Q: What sequence folds into this?
């Protein structure tokens, strides 16, 4: 009997170790809602990475507008000099998912001219494991004095889902007021999205007066989404104006200071209609103007007609906390296995 339980304890230890290793992988969306772009602050990506712990097997997800950025893994020298001449690898399509397969320092830059020097670069240090695996405890041999067989201890199975079990909602009885029942919280909104105005054409004098109207027609905008205006500096600007000034192409009394330094990122902070024009002489009159209708609530999924190659970032994968929950389950199973080995 003792031998059988000893074998069971060893098996549980091996299973726990396997769970520990497998659950250590996590997925990180680089820059979170900022995505992979020329950042507003040159230290944005180093600040983002400083709060994370990366281990072998983790995945970095780079969200960017395809054709406007890329992701190149380079040497430390290439990272310091912003040179992608001999990259280790290059990803051109968004979202780019890069698995960290080895311990040590990994360096990533955008190869587009000026982007790396503007702060679009990321360096991460990868550990072999998240934390030391549980150490196996020696199992006593047959010479140990027998002890009375204890009651069977139930062995918890690792959770199939990293999310906690739903809390039971009390149902009011005859003597309980219905108003005291717990109301479930609403489903979470989708993650904010970044739309590159005009896609690859950017913000410029269009070839057709209805170009920006057509661009916005098949998109759904929600509060929290971001419009990114890309243009050549000193040749265009962006002004948010009233409906009246939009119709007559007037930049008088703009709703916010006129933006002149690209890329201009404007967060849609309230529901309703928003109107944007270029105030350079004649530009609005030939079609450099954009009107969008913003919905107040979020959505459970991105708009069905939106081209994902022009969005940044996409809906984020499960957060790293899911991996932490699995690690905790594996550690509990390991402790139980050790306890069984000591008893038997």
A:
């Amino acid at each position: 009997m003792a031998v059988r339980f000893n074998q069971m304890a060893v098996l549980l230890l091996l299973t726990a170790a396997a769970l520990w290793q497998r659950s250590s992988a996590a997925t990180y969306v680089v820059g979170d809602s900022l995505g992979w772009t020329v950042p507003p602050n040159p230290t944005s990506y180093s600040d983002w990475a400083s709060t994370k712990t990366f281990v072998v097997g983790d995945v970095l997800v780079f969200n960017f507008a395809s054709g406007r950025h890329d992701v190149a893994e380079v040497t430390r020298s290439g990272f310091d000099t912003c040179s992608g001449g001999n990259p280790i690898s290059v990803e051109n399509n968004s979202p780019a998912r890069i698995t960290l397969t080895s311990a040590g320092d990994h360096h990533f830059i955008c190869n587009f001219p000026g982007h790396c020097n503007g702060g679009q670069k990321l360096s991460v240090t990868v550990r072999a494991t998240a934390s030391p695996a549980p150490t196996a405890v020696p199992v006593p041999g047959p010479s140990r004095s027998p002890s009375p067989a204890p009651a069977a201890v139930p062995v918890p199975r690792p959770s199939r889902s990293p999310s906690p079990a739903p809390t039971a909602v009390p149902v009011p009885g005859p003597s309980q007021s219905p108003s005291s029942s717990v109301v479930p919280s609403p489903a979470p909104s989708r993650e904010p999205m970044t739309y590159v105005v005009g896609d690859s054409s950017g913000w410029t004098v269009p070839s057709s007066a209805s170009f920006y109207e057509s661009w916005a027609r098949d998109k759904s905008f929600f509060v929290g989404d971001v419009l990114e205006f890309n243009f050549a500096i000193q040749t265009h600007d962006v002004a948010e104006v009233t409906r009246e000034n939009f119709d007559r192409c007037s930049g008088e009394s703009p709703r916010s200071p006129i933006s002149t330094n690209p890329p201009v990122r404007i967060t849609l902070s309230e529901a309703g209609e928003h109107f944007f024009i270029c105030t350079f002489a004649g530009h609005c009159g030939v079609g450099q103007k954009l009107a969008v209708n913003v919905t107040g609530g979020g959505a459970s999924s991105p708009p069905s007609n939106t081209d994902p190659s022009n969005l940044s970032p996409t809906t984020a994968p499960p957060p790293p906390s899911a991996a932490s929950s699995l690690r905790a389950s594996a550690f509990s199973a390991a402790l139980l296995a050790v306890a069984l080995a000591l008893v038997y």
Q: What stands out?
A: The mean pLDDT is 77. The chain is about 20% helix and 20% strand. Residues 16 and 29 are 28 Å apart (CA to CA).
